Amino acid sequence: MSHVLVLNSGSSSIKYQLLDMAQGTPVASGIVERIGEGRSSLTHKVPAADPGGETRRYERTEPYADHEAGLKAVLDAFAAAGPDLDAIRPAAVGHRVVHGGDRFGGAVLVDDGVESAIEELAPLAPLHNPANLAGIRGARKAFPNVPQVAVFDTAFHQTLPPAAYTYAVPEEWRTGHKVRRYGFHGTSHAYVSRRAAAILGQDPADTNVIVLHLGNGASATAIESGRSVETSMGLTPLEGLVMGTRSGDVDPSLPAYLARNAGMSAAEVDTALNKRSGVLALAGANDMREVWRMVDEGHEGARLAVDVYCHRLRKYIGAYYAVLGSVDALVFTAGVGENDERVRAGAVAGLERLGLRIDPAKNDGLVRGTEQVISPEGAEVPVMVIPTDEELEIAVQSLELLGR
Ligand code: ADP
């Protein structure tokens, strides 16, 4: 029986899951937080073996200076609270890495060359790649005898054709500075589109899907015959859909306009577009549950926020329909996509001529955390809700790479 340990390392945190690949379910999970900040903490959870049982929790608060120390604490947690890693002997450690540039079109076995490449790509993801790399370096020390696999958020979108990934900008930007569309959330789009094909009973290679990954970050992808051919995030995750705190598409002249008229620097505008825009800027809150509460209380900003959010979704669905020519399924996933029936209804409102329709009873009565078709029986284009599972996808890709 194979197990894979999946690590998602942020600048001051490490999230982890140990998956039993016979079942595809986690047998332990946890998070190390505030690494390098003095008051670090670790929370380790071991779900009960039987359905009615209680999850075992193990917690520690002690300073972890860096990712290596954090991973040592994770090993201690497994030793103290189980399961026994020495007995399980994970087949791989799978690492989430945000940016693989145009260098990585799939998962790779980590070696010194891969580490250097992730480091060289840091200008494209200055917050994420160095943190991901710190996790990889720590894990190579903590698990010296286990193969380490890097799975990139961008990799699934490396199949975009030049017509889709090229920005019409000066040559020296494109070649000298690697300016192009990369796309993100690839692990989720890959997983969800494959599940959609399985639900349809089709081979992914014969299936065209539009996936809307709507979390705090959000992106849409057009998948043709199992391959990503267009996606809404670009050089960075700022482009495309309206998100929790990101604007998505704006006029590219906005930074220059604000520099002239508000004295703002490019960095200030960039920070504001990433952290103080999107639903948060319009409604004053970025959690959709809170935003809908405000809508119900008559808050005009919140109403505008959901209108802008859903309008952008409809626009992208229409555009990706045109890109694909024919669509076998439209899929909603991630926090908002899986849980927000009003956003789902708003996203397809008025798209009946495209064959897109939602059955209100199915949409409203959805059982959380399950895969469901929410379009009416016999609909031209099935509309689905599919919970994403990026950890499972990272584990699956890690094992596939190792030929298991
Ligand atoms: P992340 O991008 O951080 O991985 P998630 O996919 O977990 O995000 O999505 C988080 C978001 O999902 C929250 O900010 C919230 O807006 C939304 N969300 C979660 N539960 C619900 C719900 N029941 N109804 C509406 N929105 C929800």
Automatic annotation (TrEMBL):
Catalytic activity field: acetate + ATP = acetyl phosphate + ADP
Record keywords: ATP-binding, Cytoplasm, Kinase, Magnesium, Metal-binding, Nucleotide-binding, Transferase
Binding site for substrate: R96
Top-level division of the source organism's lineage: Bacteria
Any GO CC annotation of this UniProt entry: cytoplasm
Sequence positions that bind ATP: K15, H213, L214, G215, N216, G217, D287, M288, R289, G335, V336, G337, E338, N339
InterPro entries: Ac/propionate_kinase (IPR004372), Aliphatic_acid_kin_short-chain (IPR000890), Aliphatic_acid_kinase_CS (IPR023865), ATPase_NBD (IPR043129)
EC number annotated for this UniProt entry: 2.7.2.1
Cell location: Cytoplasm
S-adenosyl-L-methionine listed as a keyword: no
First-level EC class: transferase
Record bears the keyword Transferase: yes
List of catalytic residues: D153
Cofactors required: Mg(2+); Mn(2+)
Comment on bound cofactor: Mg(2+). Can also accept Mn(2+).
Function noted in UniProt: Catalyzes the formation of acetyl phosphate from acetate and ATP. Can also catalyze the reverse reaction.
Family: Belongs to the acetokinase family.
Protein name: Acetate kinase
Lineage of source species: Bacteria, Bacillati, Actinomycetota, Actinomycetes, Streptosporangiales
